[in-house]
Amino acid sequence: NIEKNYKENLAVVSCVKVANFPFQRELKDFDFGFQPSIDKNKIMDLSTLRFIENNENIIFCGTPGVGKTHLAVAIGTLAAIQRYSVYFIPFHELISQLRKAKYENRLETRIKWFCRYKLLIVDEVGYEKMDNDTANLFFNLISKRYEKSSTVITTNLVFSKWPDVFGDPVLTNALLDRLLHHCSVLNINGPSYRLKDQ
């Protein structure tokens, strides 16, 4: 039994390692008292991971520092512990990988690689304006994952501002359509944790 536990722990550690999280965070470390705008019951419901079974998405919306990435990583960690394949990537890094793949004529392969993950966490969407090409790359990836797997997105952008950043309103609507079709949107309106102890 000890050996079985050891093997299971090892598997969990490797799932968490493979997930590429920027730091370790768990839900129990999250200060819900500091962010009363977050519905704790909703987060606890998401932590059952039913959303992954249903191929649903989650979008955490809010200004920098409110805990979006913390929550995304905490839910991703739970999923990795349950042996789901999880991958965390900052948006700018995702785009630079897709651009490079396109340049090297292996875009399809790269998109397939990202689609292997049952849960893909894309952090910080919308911090800078995109050209059409970039918006298209992201749209391609989201379309391929649509209704097949779950994507968690953190963003500081309210949806009405997405067309400004993605450039093309038609493409943006199609993108949001796929992201929001089966999706929990959590708007976090509150103070920044980073300023909390200053």
Helix/strand layout:
Layout: H1 2-18, H2 40-46, H3 50-53, E1 57-62, H4 68-81, E2 86-90, H5 91-103, H6 107-115, E3 119-125, H7 132-145, E4 150-155, H8 162-166, H9 169-181, E5 183-188
Parallel strand pairs: 1-4, 1-5, 2-3, 3-4
Helix pairs in contact: 5-6, 6-7, 7-9
Explained architecture:
The protein has helices at 2-18, 40-46, 50-53, 68-81, 91-103, 107-115, 132-145, 162-166, 169-181; strands at residues 57-62, 86-90, 119-125, 150-155, 183-188. It has 198 residues and is of the alpha/beta class. Strands 2-3-4-1-5 form a 5-stranded parallel sheet. It is globular, with a radius of gyration of 17 Å. The relative contact order is 0.19.
Radius of gyration: 17 Å
Helix content: 40-55%
Strand content: 15-25%
Biggest sheet, spatial arrangement of strands = 2-3-4-1-5
Helix/strand-derived category reads: alpha/beta
For the largest beta-sheet, the strand count, sense and barrel status come to: 5 strands, parallel
Instruction: Give me the count of strands.
Output: 5
- How far the N terminus sits from the C terminus, by CA atoms, comes to 48 Å
